[in-house]
Amino acid sequence: MNIAIVGTGYVGLVTGACFAEMGVTVYCVDIDVNKIENLKQGIIPIYEPGLEEIVQRNIAAERLHFTTDLTTCLDQVEVIFSAVGTPPDEDGSADLKYVLEVARTVGRNMKDYVLLVTKSTVPVGTALKVKAAIQDELSKRGEVIPFDVASNPEFLKEGAAVNDFMSPDRVVVGVESEKAKDLLTRLYRPFVINNFRVIFMDIPSAEMTKYAANAMLATRISFMNDIANLCELVGADVNMVRRGIGSDGRIGTKFLYPGCGYGGSCFPKDVKALIKTAQEKGYGMDVITAVERVNEAQKQVLFKKFTRLYGDNLKGVKVAVWGISFKPETDDTREATSLVLIRQLVDAGCIVTVYDPVAMHECKRYFGEEINYAKDMYEAVLDAEALFLVTEWKTFRMPSWKVLTKTMAGNLIIDGRNIYEPSEVRANGFIYEGIGVK
User: Which of 18, 28, 266, 363 is catalytic?
Assistant: First the structure.
């Protein structure tokens, strides 16, 4: 089967590469000329474990192709996945201009049946707009050509996206016709051959499923952060509480880890978009609105802990930050707590040095020469009064406390992800501050 993927961002590139790995001929389309030229050479624009090897292997096998013009491959494909960006507008709603432009391009140039599948995260009702855009272009041409639209939201975790795509726990597909269902069944069968976990439903339900899933996970995170903050006030330990409630089969243990706030390209944007969708329908999403409010407040917690211990006069105080990306195994810094913290530290007059295994280049885009960039984790803490752990990269999990003792000028460790054992840190002569722990 031949397919096209429009958009070579995080979702589009992973989708295209993984389909090619299963033997599908894939044409990846993007308007960014430099990105496409690099991709033709196997140079990928993002950090994602395992992805570069798959891209290079399938380019060599001539199953994975890259172009800047959808029309050059439109006649050769039966299925087109739209994986273009849906950036949030100022009011929190998803901007659909790129999604609808793909639809219009298809409508202006299609000659035979095509199935346009929306892979981007879009509000409920987007498929109707996509369908109307295609039909409008066909009407302008005076053509009657059959087509279908479908919704196939992605559920990829950054840092584990290749494995998630190759071995999905479920594939959600919204369709309107048996032909569309058959095409997508053929495409996904190789990925779920031993256990067919494709869930077919109507298109609005598929569109809503993506938002509901991310909102639920965000809710669990904000709930635990709220509980952690209360634990500090009443003398409880959130790790004990987490184990206690997680043992309940109705609750489970996943996403019950408190920290310094969630970030990334999905949760913040999707929560805002869901709230906006509800507002447009005259409904207030009280729980989800609180989830967002709690998360924004949680991103302030690390700086508040620091000022509580050091006071408000922080001019000239040297501090180190470990971890810039919003989570490990990615260089994505969108909505990252680290950016909020660093901005607060810089504005307070601190001398900030940062280190991240892969996201240093992204940090430089935000802060330029305002902060210092270390070559490794121990260079970052040289003469630092305090160390902030913001992203729980594996390389940070077992630091040499002896090295930290010798290199740091102070002894404050603020652990934003609760990855250290407080008693061990304190036994090595440090002041330890976690999230909701004793």
Answer: 266
